[in-house]
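User: Working on a comparison across species. This one is peptidyl-tRNA hydrolase from Amblyomma sculptum. Can you predict its structure so I can line it up against the others?
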Amino acid sequence: LTELNWPVGAVIAQACHACTAALQLFGDDVNTIAYTENLDSMHKVVLAAPTEPKLLALCQALRDANIDYKLWIEQPENIPTCVATKPYPKADVQTFFKGFKLFK
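Assistant: Here's the predicted structure for peptidyl-tRNA hydrolase from Amblyomma sculptum:
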């Protein structure tokens, strides 16, 4: 948000794009199916990556651990803006996000 100087709404849209894409990409996964079966109980955590290099380092760590995710790249600017994992149990992914703070 600070680095790109975008309005909050534009940043929220990036998160929505990434989440929607992750659900579509991993729609046949057992965790995704379970997550979307009870729409009123969905839970998400929105964290802020302070810089693009930190966002890309997170992607690399997820890739190295075989954690499925979608990196949203805003077009036509070609700017990586958001990462969304497929639904996982918290215990499986929380360590990757320890260095990130809640988005405000």
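For your comparison, note: Residues 8-25 form the longest helix (18 residues).

User: Helpful, thanks.
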